[in-house]
Amino acid sequence: MQDAAIQTTPRVYAVKRAGGFTRAFNLLVRWPVVPGTVLSILVVLAVFTPLIAPHEPLAASVRNRLAPPVWYENGTTNYLLGADTVGRDVLTRLMYGARISLLVAAVALVTGTVVGTTIGLIAGYYGGLVDEVLMRIVDVWFGLPFVLIALVIAVILHPSLTTMMALLALFTWAGFVRNVRGEVLTLKTRDYVSLARIAGASNTRILLQHILPGVTNTVLVLASLRAGQLILTEAFLSFLGAGIPPPTATWGSMIADGRSYLRDAWWISVFPGVAIFMTVMSLNFLGDWIRDRLDPRLNQL
Amino acid sequence: MQSFIIRRLFTTILALLGATLIIFSLSRLLGDPRLLFLPPDGYGISKEEYAKLEAQLHLDKSVPVQYGYWLGDLLKGNLGRDLSDRAQIAPKLTKRFGPTLKLALAGFILATVVGVPLGVLSAMKRGSLVDYIARSLALMGQTVPVFWVAILSILIFSVWLGWLPSATMGEGFAIRNYILPTVTLAIYPVAGYVRIVRSAMLDVLDSEYIKLARAKGVGGWTVTWKHAFKNAAIAPLTFAGLLLGGFITGSVAVETVFAWPGLARYAVEAVQTNNFTVIAVITLIFTGIYVIANFAVDILYAYVDPRIRYS
User: Which of B50-54, B84-88, B156-160 has the highest mean pLDDT?
Assistant: First the structure.
């Protein structure tokens, strides 16, 4: 006879396994596949440009000026995306422009991040007068419209690659200070900091060993969100003529070059813009993903 | 409230002085400042003029004294001479300020009229197609380069379709000339508005008193506008500083591409012709506007949200 342990047939709830398409979609969203791919292609193109580019970026060929892209009836495979006003290949210049944009943005971002984080750390940790003064400087800096200052600097300094990097670094450093300082203020009160101080650690050691790792997440998120902005700013300054001087191929200056030829050769202006758009979008998506993974509190940014 | 106003006023004045200091020190401390005043057409100036510049710029005195002279001149209204035609800058500025203001105002009105309701709609119908489209547009609006969109719009609407004129302001108040520049200028602010208003509305809609209103049976529209929106409406104020910065940058782009006879385009022309005096003055003007507007917004925000006064 069956005892108290009544065996009931377990109800089986069939959970439908997600179909292939849904699983692919979920994978796409969990990992930044699309922006990652776009950016990887871009970086590879930029790094290996001298090997893959079909032409020289400065090689003018007046016979081929304003040549149309390959899908036009008189377009050739020689100029896949057409040629510009003096016959330079648009595709090649796009690739070389990618090098410049990525290089300038990367250097400026790293420099600005390091400087901004350092100042934020110092302001937050030491507090007092140092904090006040530094924050005032940051407030003043925020109160200024950057583009116009950049234009003034362009008139006085006649920018080159290095001055552009410095300029853009100036653009970004202030954006880190407030957030890093806030983080430091929170971390300062933690027990491990007090314990380190009791153990006799110097201020520098505490800052570098204990507090810096705590702000790394915030800094990474902020940096990744700024990267796209830097590329946009660099392109804008180049477009206005306040950037890296011609004949260097930059996306912004290519767009400016093509302005007078919209009717006859729209490709000179359009393709660099597409490149900028895709790069910045990818960087922004990547930044959003990093933010969602590392520090969702910064969602308002 | 008083001490808050005073503190913010202090920072504002500091920012203005800071801007003048930056421009001044850049111009005087990097090489021979007289080189900046060489006319842009490339011809050198005569030896007498060069010597006269030394007296004009007070180069024999120490740098802080030079700064004092320069600042004094600015405050007295002597804004210097345009290097390309040696004319006084001040009358030119007044002539070109109007167009910039009109375009900026048009852009602002369009952005507010389109952006705010879109943000509210996006929040109310969260997760729907409308929300999705609005958020995508907002994302694109903040990532795409404004000057390129301007060129693209000229390509599509002027060159290929021929519907709209591609440049200048036109006579009187030619609406057709306003359409493309205004829409292009409004893209970035609309994107910003949609995100901020949507985010603020979502926050508010989650709050207790909204739930209570709904529980009481208050209808959807009333809940949206009378209760939620009024509280979410101050959120764009926090964004106003960035918005204004976006307008300044946007004006530079739009005026340049559409050949709009405004102040921002004057600045770009000055850069391209190495016209230092002009770009310095225009930068200070825009900086002044930017700084004062930020100050006003801060005061307004502190008036509306008393918690800010103690920060």
Answer: B156-160
Residue A210 DSSP symbol: I
**Which CA distances in Å does A29 have to A33, A78, A223, B147?**
8, 38, 21, 31
Question: Rounded to two decimals, what is the model's pTM?
Answer: 0.85
Cβ distance A152 to B147 less than 8 Å, yes or no, reads no
Q: How far is A273 from chain B (nearest CA, A)?
A: 6
Residue A89, φ and ψ in degrees, nearest 5? -70, 130
A151 Cβ under 8 Å from any chain B Cβ? yes
Structure tokens, A23? 């699983």
What is the DSSP track for B146-198?
HHHHHHHHIIIIIIIS--S--SS-TTTT-HHHHHHHHHHHHHHHHHHHHHHHH
* Distance from C-alpha of A147 to C-alpha of B54, rounded to nearest angstrom: 30
List of chain B residues whose C-beta atoms are within 8 Å of the C-beta of residue A272: 148
CB contact under 8 A, A152 and B283: yes
> What tens digit of pLDDT does each residue of A72-119 get?
777 777 788 888 888 888 888 899 999 989 999 999 999 999 999 999
Nearest-CA distance B196 → chain A (Å)? 8
Domains and CATH numbers, chain B: 2-75 (no CATH), 95-304 (1.10.3720.10)
Q: Are A98 and A156 in contact (CB under 8 A)?
A: no
B158 touches B166 (CB < 8 A): yes
Closest partner residue to B151 among A141, A269, A280, by Cβ? A269
Sign of CA dihedral B113, B229, B300, A182: negative
Question: Using CA atoms, how far apart are residues B96 and B261, in angstroms rounded to an integer?
Answer: 6
CB atoms within 10 A of CB A36: 14
Q: Determine, for residues A236 and B147 on separate chains, whether the beta-carbon distance falls below 8 Å.
A: yes
Residue A128: count other Cβ atoms within 10 Å of its Cβ: 8
Interchain CB contact of A227 with B (< 8 Å): no
Q: What's the gap in Å between the CA of A17 and the closest CA on chain B?
A: 24
Instruction: List all residues 6 or more positions away from B211 whose beta carbon is below 8 Å from its beta carbon.
Output: none
Q: What is the CA radius of gyration of chain B?
A: 24
Distance from CA of B27 to the nearest CA of A (A): 7
Compute the distance between CA of residue A251 and CA of residue A254 in angstroms, rounded to an integer: 5
Closest residue to B15, CB basis, from A143, A152, A154: A143
- Say how many Å lie between the first and final Cα of chain A, rounded: 69
Q: Could you give the angle at which helices A267-294 and A33-47 cross, rounded to 10 degrees? A: 130
A246 or A129, which is more confident: A129
Q: Which of these, A141, A79, A92, lies nearest to B15 by C-alpha position? A: A141
d(C-alpha B41, C-alpha B274), whole Å: 9
ipTM for the complex?
0.85
Does A156 contact B291 at a Cβ distance shorter than 8 Å?
no
Beta bridge partners of A83: A89
d(CA A145, CA A139): 12
The verdict on A259 touching B (C-beta cutoff 8 Å) is yes
